Structure formats: structure tokens, C-alpha cells
Amino acid sequence: MSQREVFLAAQRTVALVLAGGRGKRLHDLTRRIAKPVLDFGGKYRIIDFTLSNCVNSHIRRILVLTQYNSHLLLEHLQFGWSFLDPRIDEFVHVLPAQQSLEGDAWYAGTADAVWQNLENIRRHGPETVLVLAGDHIYKMDYRLFLEDHLEKDADVTVACLEVPLDAARDFGVVEAAEDDRILSFAEKPLDPRPVPGRPGLAFASMGIYLFKASFLYERLAEDAIRPGSSHDFGRDVIPFLVPHARVFAHRFGRSCVPNLDKAPYWRDVGTLDAYWEANMDLTSVDPELNLYDAAWPVYTRLEQSPPAKFVHSDPHRNGVAISSLVSAGCIVSGATVHRSLLFSGARAHSQAYLHEAVVLPDADIGEGARLHRVIVDRGCRIPPGLVAGQDPEADARRFHRTAGGATLISQRMLDRLQGTR
Description:
Alpha-D-glucose 1-phosphate binds at residues 107, 172, 187-188, 205. It comes from Mesoterricola sediminis. This protein is an alpha/beta fold. β28 and β29 (407-409) form a beta hairpin.
């Protein structure tokens, strides 16, 4: 298939980004916002990675389906993703959950979310529908995914990657033939099947699907009335289709945007430990995720912020950052920042020491505070002299300490600690 044919097929594709997730395992980080709009990497939101993949893949008719705590997500999309040109049929449209004559507002599952918006999809006349999650970090050229789908004349293609067997219980696990036709699909099995010849790995669904549009419409209509269905792609639709349709796996290694000799990068930052680790990786000399690739940029909302500032050079009061990411609008005023991320507008005051800290936007680190292996929530005011990350028992009493040893600090926790609401 020629590049021109793939390009034209991309123009006839509509992307559906499912962005309604609550992100409960992220605790206070997503208490008031949806997981896809959570800050990541110093200046981005999680959903920016999926949307950037679409734009860079020339799939620029994008529908974002929202549900829980969606106000900040809607604001981010309005101010950060309005640069596509509707005059040439490029857009990011938001489809909030809403009441209709047919039913209630909330979506019962991922397939139901698409089913409830079927008329909004139909009116764009796509030949192919790309279904995406809006809460994962990865870089993927969807054109190569689309090429595989078309060359195999698939009814549906499922993007898959190899994961450790002990982690496969959190995924849909796929068994595929040599030609990548899917033989079985089990959603979150208790005893996942390993890849033949590779006993420590399982072949897992990424929750990314390509459908022939007409085929999708028919299958969703059937699923909507199927007794006992939870109306979810992974639990119901895909397993039902495997023996009845042309269902193929697409190997992520073929379409991932390469980062030199690194393994294909995909992260679900759905837990605090996974979120902390993925952010920390960016401070490495040679991180697994390349944010500096001009050929595959990550787009986001650009706010008018001044440059980062490092002030004071007294013998015992230096504003320095080492092996760290410091975003626009930050001020490091006599503090030491080591292997940490300061998101936009964060401030660290004199004699503060931050090590392996993820400090979200507009947080203020008080004078003399010492923070190690922490996540500081957006807008927090860390009081002077606070110490966190050194005494596990004290951290667990005051804040939220994870199984992996990271400590989440939110303003709600600080207010409770100080006896205020």
C-alpha cells in the first residue's frame, strides 16, 4: 500500500478519544479532575499525548468523549486544541455525556459511550473509526496501524504489546496466530496465557481499536440489546467478535515512534507509583520517552509564562537545579532541586531541598522544607520547614504513602494537618 493511499485513508478516519475516566487510584490528584487532564512531564496533560499522536498521524477529525469532572478538560481542549482548521475538515470536538430521548447521561461502558454518540460519528461519514483511550502516555504513528488494518481487510484491529505475565491481569490478553489473526481474547484474566516460547510475557491489548465504520455501527447496535452485556469493548464486544469476524492484532513495535535503541514506550500512569516513576524517568540523561523529538512534537496549551528563574548565589543560599526539569514560570530562590520536576509556575524558597520530587503547577515550597520521593499536588502551599519522605510512618500518618514508597501531598492533607479545612 502506497504512502498516498494510507494518507487518504487517514483523511477518511475519525478518531474517538475516550476521556471520561475518574482515575480513582490517583487519589487526591484526580479528586476534582478527570485523569486525562492530569499534569505530566512538566508542562503537558496526559491527553496531549493521544491527541498529538492523532495530529502527527494526519488523523485530524477528532471527537473527545468526556464524562467525570470534565470542566478543566473542556477548558484545556478549548484553549489548547483549537488550532486545527475546520475549513479543511480538521477539528477537535468535545462530546460530553448528556441526556437524550433514548436514555440517561452516564455511559455504561466504553462501547456504550460510542453507541450513545453514533449519530455524531455518522455525520462525518468516516470509512474507518479509531477508538483511543485518553489516559495513556505513548507515541504511536496511527498510519502504520491503519495500513495493517487495511492490508488485512480486517473488520477490527486491536493494538497489542507484550507485557510481563504478572502484570497481564490488568489487560485484555490476546492469543494470535502467525498471521496475527486473533484466536482468543480474555479481559483481565486471573490466569493469563503467556506468549508461546516466552513464558514470562503476555500479549496484551492496549485498548486501541480500528473498525470499519459500517461494521462498528452494526456491532454496537447488536451489543446495545444483547442480554447481560456490560457494553464494554474489552469485556464484551471484542471477545464476542473474535470467532465471528476478521479480528487482527497489530504489534505496537511496528508503529511506535522510536527512541533510538529503547524498547517501545507505553505507560498507564493510573497509580501514584506509576505516575511518579514515569515522571522521574524524564530526569534521566537518556530517558525512555523522548520529549525533544522535533519530528514528533507533543502539543499542549501554551500559557504566557516568563522564563524559569534561578536566584541568589550566596555561599549557603544558591538557587540550583541538577538533573531536573524546570518549566516556564518557575522560580528557584535559594533552593536546591535535584532529580526532580518543577511544573509550570512552581516556586521553591531559600534552603528548601527537593530530591526525586514531582511538583505540580503553581505549588509553593516553603523555606527550609525538605522533600524526598514526593508528589506535590497542584497549587499546594508547603509550609516552611516541612520534612517529608524521610520517616515512612510519619508520612503515612500525615499524607498518603504508596506501596512503592512515594508520598502524595495535597492541600487537603496540609489543611487537615494544620487543623483547618
